[in-house]
Each structure stands twice: as C-alpha cells, then as structure tokens.
Amino acid sequence: MTIDRSQGRVARDGVEAAADVVTFTGNRGLQLEEKLIFEQGEAGRCGVDLPAAPKHTAKLGGLARKGGVGLPGLAEPQVVRHYTRLSQKNYGIDSGFFPLGSCTMKHNPRLNERMARLPGFGDIHPLQPVSTVQGALELIDTLAHWLKTLTGMPAVAMSPAAGAHGELCGMVAIKAALEARGEGHRTRVLVPESAHGTNPATAAVIGFTVDPIPATEAGRVDLAAFKAKLGPDVAAIMLTNPNTCGLFEGDIREIADAIHEAGGYFYCDGANFNAIVGRVRPGDLGVDCMHINLHKTFSTPHGGGGPGSGPVVLSERLAAYAPLPWTILKDGKFQVLEQAEGEAKAAFGRLKAFHGQMGMFVRALAYMLSHGADGLWQVSGDAVLNANYILASLKDVMTAPFEGPCMHEALFDDRFLEGTGVSTLDFAKALIDEGYHPMTMYFPLVVHGALLVEPTETEDKQTLDLFIGTLRSLAERAKAGAAEEFHAAPRLTPRRRLDETLAARKPVLRWKRAGDNAMAAE
C-alpha cells in the first residue's frame, strides 16, 4: 500500500479509494454509523427480567405519572455495543497527539491511576472521622509541602476545584486582605489583554472593576502603560506567566515591584506552570498568589470537562486569609481546621464542601514523586523544546505573530492564509480528516485567526515530525487553491461540518421521533 498525502487518497494495488464512497449501511469500513440510543430502542425489550410490581395505593394524588417514562428498550449486548462504539469516536490523549493549546493535554501515567485506586484513597469518604483518614490527610499535607517548595510560597489553599475556582480563591483572599487593611476603596484590577478570559470574569464577579493593559508588538505587557494605570484605587494585577501567547514576561519582577509599591497585590495565573516547573519559583518573582492546575502541570485526567484541581499558593502577605479547611499537624496527629478561629480567624470562609479533589491529589503527588526534582526540570525543558521545534519547523509555510522563540506553546496567525479563501476554521476542520484533534483556534483573542499549539513534553520527535508534515501539507494545499476542499472538511468523519452557530442558538436538547418537527443542528 502507498499513501499519497498530497491528494488525501489511499491507493491499494493501484486502485484509488475516494473519500466520497457511499455504503448501504452508512458505515465506512470499521467506522460504524451509530444511531441515538433512543432510535435503537424498541418497546418491550429489556436486558433484565423484573418481577411484576405489587399493587399498591398511589400516594401522589394528581401528580401520578400518566404515561411512559420514554426510556429506550434494549438488550444488554445492544447497550454494551452502543457505548463501546461511542467511546471509539472519542479523541483523547490515549488516541494520539492532542495539540490543544493552553490546555496541556499530556500523557497520564498509569502509575498515577493505580495509586488513586488504592484502598484508603479511592474508597474513603470526607465525612469519616479524622482519626480514620490520617493517611489521606498526610498525603494532602505532603502534596501541599511540595507545591510550596516548587513555587517558593509559604502557604497553599488545597480546596479550589479548578483553575477558575483558584482565581476566585486568590482574588477573594486579596479582597479580604484589603478590607482588613481598611482599603476597601481599592476596586480596580489591571488585566493584560492577552489574559485568560476567566481572569477579568473572576475579578468582575466579586465586584472589582477590570482595567485592561495593552500588549507591546512583542506580545508582552506594555510596562509603561501598566505603570501609567497605577493609582490609589488599584487592588491587584492578574497576569499569566508564561502568557497566553506562549511568551515569558521578562518584566515580571519590575511589574511585581511596581504593583507592591502602589499598595496592590500580584495575582499570577498559573495555568502555564508546566513551562517553568522545576526551573522558576513564582514566589521569587514577587507573586502574591497563584493557582496551579494540577490537572495540567501534574498530569491528572481532565478531558471532557473534569475533574480538575486548582490549589492556590499564597505569599506571607495573604496566607492568613486562605479559605477553610486547613490541614495541620498537631501533637503528631493531623487535624482539620473548619472554623474561622484561632490561627485561622482571618480565613475568608469556604469555597466548596470538604477538602478538595482527593483523586487529583493522589495522582499529582504520584507524578511528582515518580519524576523527582530532576524529572520535573526535564518536563518543563522538553515542553519548551517541543514547542520551539514546531514553531521553527513551520515558520516558512505558516506565520507567527511574534519574533523569537516561544515557551511551551507555538502560536501562529492566519496571515499565511490570506488570499486563499481558507479560514482558520477551515484549516482546523481539515486537520480532523488527517486524524488529529485541531489545535486551539482564535485564541488568544489579541492575535487574528490564532492557531495555538501545545505539544507538551509527552510527544517524541517522530510524532512531532508527522504533525509538522501534516500542517505543511495543509498550508501548501491551501496556497495551491484547494479552498473548496477545505470548505467541505471534515469529509471523513461520521458527521460532516455542522452549522455550529445554529446549534449554539437552537440546540436540540431532547430527542423527538421523526416527524415531530425537531430542529436539526446540522
């Protein structure tokens, strides 16, 4: 068999297999057409035999159900096959390279999964007596120790459930500290234009006014513009470093000194900590608080929306305001402080029930201990190396908005597509036909038609070379006038390109039988 990548066809024994082959079943080889489970169901079919319900007197009055529940009737093999086939349509890091920028989609070592399922970690309950979960509390305390060590910060709040939740934690702590100082009048938060969208949203939701800071042509915070915005009403700056353009903010120490001199605090978004872990301690850069996405930097599964974990490290200026609960060691026993009293009297309260994401804590600590200090140093180095390899290998056919090397992710804009009739969206959809999940598109917003690629340290050179070759091929085909091919992409998926705008405005949230005039989202 030979593969002609330029034509997108596979030739076997001299016979071309076109992408538009139509089959009677709707299947494409082993890519099976999968109907909705409701469409497969039949009345009266069931995978189990249940005894008839005994007669009883209804106690619901006029609220008793008058019709069927509407669940599909299927035999057990049908149910198993349905969900197995659906799982085969998923794309994840276990399927292949996942270049989603800003998300750090890296391999999750199976050792971590095994540790998270150990008895005593996987089967405990947060309402158990503290005396029965000493090992779990010791693990939380140990993980907290290493998070503080890696960041150079004296305190950490473990309970936040994800990155945005961590942002909320840090900013509420800053608000509590300002009010304790009698400076509640500080209500303005400075946010770079390249920040994650949750940064200004978090500040706004707790009552701060958001004041954007422009970027320089080099993609970093405009230092002069930042200093010009400082004043007696400034509460904090929320800055990501490395930033969402994949660049290190070289003026970060000067920014920290300036915000402190003005009486404000420095919140650092730690979503990109994977690029510097083991090499740079944010505490040494003047950071007052920073959330850490355990599900990104320390390799815990976060596909499909969760679960996440976002502990927040705090400087000495903010440590007293950390949210409850606190885990402390006293007289050789671990205790959980759950009331704002004693040493926790200044705590601003709770963010969530219980103590945090225990499964994520176990995975993160297993990742740290299995890598060691030298391993984490190599993690960040390899992540940066891989991103720069992609950037350098594609600069001649794609366009980068900023000069020079990047950190953990390679950022491209859409200038290389000018005059081709191909958009960033078209380009990403064509990547699906090549067997890849697309990179992050149109983010960061400060870059027109952005294509953001984060290879992480997981991928080897062979994998990156194939991905680079694929992008080169797509760029060359776009420039050669194959716009119609891109407009039709993806062509090799179970479903072709959807009308995403219509689907967002008029989503079909409930299945209806044919003929019920259901709004189609295709």
What secondary-structure arrangement, pairings included, does this model have?
Elements: E1 2-4, E2 9-12, E3 15-17, H1 37-40, H2 76-88, H3 110-116, H4 134-151, E4 155-157, H5 163-180, E5 188-192, H6 198-205, E6 209-213, H7 223-228, E7 234-240, H8 252-261, E8 265-270, E9 289-292, H9 294-297, E10 312-314, E11 326-330, E12 333-337, H10 358-394, E13 410-412, H11 424-433, E14 440-441, E15 451-453, H12 461-479, H13 483-488, H14 500-505
Parallel strand pairs: 5-6, 5-7, 7-8, 8-9
Antiparallel strand pairs: 1-2, 2-3, 4-10, 9-10, 11-12, 13-15, 14-15
Description:
The protein has 522 residues and is α/β, with parallel strands linked by helices. It has two domains: 111-367, Type I PLP-dependent aspartate aminotransferase-like (Major domain) (Aspartate Aminotransferase, domain 2); 378-505, Aspartate Aminotransferase, domain 1. Helix content is 32%, strand content 12%. The chain has 14 helices and 15 strands. The strands form four sheets. A seven-stranded mixed β-sheet has the order 4-10-9-8-7-5-6, sandwiched between helices. Helix 10 packs across helix 12 (461-479). Residues 382-480 form the Glycine dehydrogenase C-terminal domain. It catalyses: N(6)-[(R)-lipoyl]-L-lysyl-[glycine-cleavage complex H protein] + glycine + H(+) = N(6)-[(R)-S(8)-aminomethyldihydrolipoyl]-L-lysyl-[glycine-cleavage complex H protein] + CO2. This is glycine dehydrogenase (aminomethyl-transferring).
